[in-house]
Amino acid sequence: MTMNYPRTQSLLCLFVASTVVGCTPTNPSTTDTDSDTETDTDTSTTTGEPPDPTTSTTVPMTTTEPTGTDTTDGTATTETSETTETTAPPVNTPPTAPEVAIEPAMPTRVDDLTCVVATESDDAEGDSITYAFAWTRDGEDAGIASETVTADQLEIGQVWECSATPNDGTEDGPAGTAAATVLPVCAGVDFDGNDDYIGAAFITAPTAWTVEAWVNPGDQSGQRAIVSQVDNAEQFKNFELGIENSKPYILAPDGSDWIKAAWPNAISSGEWHHIAGIYDGTDVYIAVDGVVGAKVPTLFVETELPLHIGARVSDGFFFDGKVFEVRVSASARYTEDFDPAIGWIPDADALALWRLDEGEGTVTADSTDNANEGTINGEAAWVLECPGT
Q1: In this structure, are residues 202 and 307 in contact, taking their beta carbons and an 8 Å threshold?
Q2: Where does the signal peptide begin and end (predicted)?
Q3: What does the pLDDT average to over 294-313?
Q4: C-alpha 22: how far from chain center
Q5: Kindly report the CA angle at 143 between 142 and 148, in degrees rounded to 5?
Q6: Among 202, 156, 208, 150, which Cα is nearest to 325's?
Q7: End-to-end Cα, the chain, rounded Å
Q8: CATH numbers and ranges of domains, the chain
Q9: I want to staple 187 with a disulfide (CB 3.0 to 4.6 A). Which of 117, 178, 249, 357 is the partner?
C-alpha cells in the first residue's frame, strides 16, 4: 500500500539560548498575501515634440503614499493618488518701442500738433498692436490722451512732448517719444507811410514801463511814430516810440516839455531791428538791437488817449515799413545790454502784446488777458516776413 504524506517545507530557524525566536520559510517562490494589501498603478506617458513655449503646457504628476500596515506580517500597503494636471502660463514678449514724430516738426502757435507713429513696434508673437498717446507741456502732464493737440492750446516757447505706448493685448512695451518747441508765426504788417495805422484802446502806463517793437523800416526821413499815445492837442504827455531821420527815439514828456532819449546813430533801412523805450520811474532811455543807451531824467506825465501803431494819434507821423510784434509792459524790462528775443510770451508785466500774425482780416489780437484788440486802418498789408528772414 502506498502512503501519501503531506509535503513539508524546510524551515530556517534562529535559536537564541536554546529558544526558537522565529522561523522563515526558505522557499522564495511562496509569498504571503493579505487581502488588505492593494496596489493601483496609473501611468501617463508624453510623446512627441517638446511643447511650444508660447502655448499652455499640461504636466502630469503622480504621487504614491503609504495607506496602512498589514496586520499579519507588518508589510506597508500603498495606494497611488489620482493624476494632477498643472497648467503653465503662456510666455509673452512685449512689443518694442515705436519711432515717434510730431507734425509739423517746427510748429507755430497757429498749428495743430499731431503725434505720429513713424515706425511701428515689432511683436515677437505677431500680435496686433495698439498705441496709447499722452502729452506733456514744459515737462508737466497736459492731460491730453489723443493724437492731436489743437492750436488754441499752444503758446510761443512751449515745449510739447508726445509719447506713444504700444500694447499687444497682453502687456505694454516701452514708449516712443518726440518733442517740439512752439515758434512764432513769421508774419507782420507792412505800413505804407501815408495813412496806415492800427488803432487800439488807451493803456495806462504805471510808474515804470517799456514799449518795444520789431521793425524793418523803409523811408526814415522826418519823424515816424512806431507806437504812440501822443496827441499834439494834449502836448507834453504820454509816450511815443519812433524814428526821426533814421535815429530811434523815445518820448516821455513831463507835462511841460517833450523829454526825449534818442539813439545817436542811424539805423539801416530794409533790415529788422529791435527798438525799445524804457522808463524806470526816474529816467527814460532807448535800446536798439539789445544795446542800452544813455539815460535822461524825467517825471513822466500821461493823459487818456487811444494807442496807435504806425502813427501818432494826431498829425500823422506815419511809419513806413514792416512791424513784427509790439509789446507794452508795466516794468523797466531792460536795464543793461541784452539779446533781443522774438516770439514774446505774455507774463505778469505785459499790459498789451500784439503779435500781428493773423495774416488776414482787419483785427489783430492782444495776447494778454486785457484783450485790447487793434483795428487796421488804411491800406496796411499782411506780410509773411519776420526777423531772421
Answers
A1: yes
A2: 1-22
A3: 97
A4: 93
A5: 80
A6: 156
A7: 143
A8: 99-181 (2.60.40.10), 188-383 (2.60.120.200)
A9: 357
Task: Write out pLDDT tens, residues 33-72.
Answer: 444 444 444 443 333 444 454 444 444 544 445 555 554 5
Quickly tell me which residue has 508589510 as its cell. 75
CB 285 within 8 A of CB 262: no
What's the mean pLDDT in 144-156? 95
pTM: 0.70
Cell of 75: 508589510
Contact between residue 285 and residue 250 where contact means Cβ atoms under 8 Å apart:
yes
In total, the chain counts a number of residues equal to 389
Residue 151 main-chain phi, psi, to 5 deg: -60, -30
Report the C-alpha gap between 75 and 77 in whole angstroms. 6
pLDDT at residue 260 is higher than 90: yes
What residues contact 286, with CB distance under 8 A and at least 6 apart? 248, 249, 250, 261, 262, 263, 275, 276, 277, 278, 293
The mean predicted confidence, pLDDT, of the chain is 85
Q: DSSP labels for 199-266?
A: EE------SSEEEEEEEEES---SEEEEEE---GGGTT-S-EEEEETTEEEEE---SSS--EEE-SS-
